[in-house]
Write a sequence for this structure.
């Protein structure tokens, strides 16, 4: 069912969240503690990060499981003050292909979804794709639900929606048609919006915004985000939360 995280705060090596934390993304992918579907997340991973020189994120994706990717040590050396990363367990019916790996990126935005849209390959996917503008539909590379929902959110952002409204609108669009698990992360390098909708999500406390499917360590300041919550955060921490 995937594991993912997002961070905005003081710059640090990517390895701090991926490899070096006691229960960082590598450990969460291989031995999740809070995952409700599947025993691990072997179907690839992705990392998007921003640098001071770029408005748009850089990205590495691989169909190698994160704990066996030979390029991970190199990726982990990059320093950043903003990151979105995800380890994948492919949904039933979805191929293991790099185009299915979050984070998906467009312009300054990076997006990840930990979850599934029920009935995606049985008509729901086509119905939701039909609501994407033709320009965005042509941008979609793969067949996964997460990428298509990102396209819907980008359409909302193009119309002037705030990040949190774009995420809430996508969740409402899906739930008007079907059920699912819709834990979403979107980041523009300065702000993070995260939803807890059907899967675990935790927020760390401190002078930063760090949200993850599971706590990265045993610090007792981690708090579980109540299901049905939308969080907004920046480098100062979580700044707002609302019910979906």
């Amino acid at each position: 069912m995937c594991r993912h995280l997002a961070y905005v705060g003081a710059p640090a090596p990517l390895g701090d969240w991926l490899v070096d934390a006691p229960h960082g993304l590598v450990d969460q992918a291989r031995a999740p503690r809070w995952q409700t579907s599947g025993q691990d997340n072997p179907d690839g991973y992705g990392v998007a990060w921003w640098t001071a020189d770029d408005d748009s994120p850089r990205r590495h994706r691989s169909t190698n499981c994160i704990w066996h990717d030979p390029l991970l040590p190199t990726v982990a050396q990059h320093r950043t003050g903003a990151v979105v990363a995800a380890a994948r367990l492919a949904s039933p019916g979805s191929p293991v292909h790099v185009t299915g790996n979050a984070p998906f990126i467009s312009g300054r935005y990076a997006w990840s979804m930990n979850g599934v849209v029920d009935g995606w390959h049985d008509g729901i996917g086509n119905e939701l794709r039909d609501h994407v503008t033709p320009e965005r539909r042509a941008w979609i590379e793969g067949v996964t639900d997460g990428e298509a929902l990102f396209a819907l959110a980008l359409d909302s952002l193009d119309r002037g929606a705030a990040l949190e409204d774009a995420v809430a609108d996508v969740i409402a669009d899906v739930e008007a048609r079907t059920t699912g698990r819709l834990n979403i992360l979107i980041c523009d390098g300065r702000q993070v919006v995260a939803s807890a909708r059907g899967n675990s999500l935790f927020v760390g406390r401190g002078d930063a915004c760090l949200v993850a499917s599971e706590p990265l360590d045993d610090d007792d300041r981690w708090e579980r985000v109540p299901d049905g919550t939308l969080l907004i955060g920046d480098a100062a921490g979580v700044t707002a939360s609302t019910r979906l």
Notes: The helical segments are 15-20, 25-30, 72-75, 124-129, 134-139, 145-158, 163-175. The two ends are 21 Å apart (CA to CA). The mean pLDDT is 96.
